[in-house]
Amino acid sequence: QVQLVESGGGLVQAGGSLKLSCAASIRTFSTYAVAWFRQAPGKDREFVAFISWSGGTIDYADSVRGRFTISRDNAKNTVYLQMNSLKPEDSAVYYCASRRSPVVWRNSGQYDYWGQGTQVTVSS
User: What is the pLDDT of residues 90-99, one digit of tens each?
Assistant: First the structure.
């Protein structure tokens, strides 16, 4: 069983930055694909970014491309999401998800393990 713990959320003004972390409870996290999703009140959960186990494959939702950066430090069993130039529409609960696989997906249904989420609120 893999436990994921997100941290780094909070309240920030529009244009500001936050860095989210997703820490895994296992040493073999380097064999897991990881993605970030977000869900705003009354909306469906949406894909934000993913990163392959090696970090060699990365992709972003169009809405965050150029502003967000996903990265991972396998030595620390942690994946990060650097969020810059934040907008009020980025406000949501952000979740990290993982699956032991070399393949990455935009579909949330493909991920086996989920964190509890961290709230990001961007004020205008």
Answer: 999 999 999 9
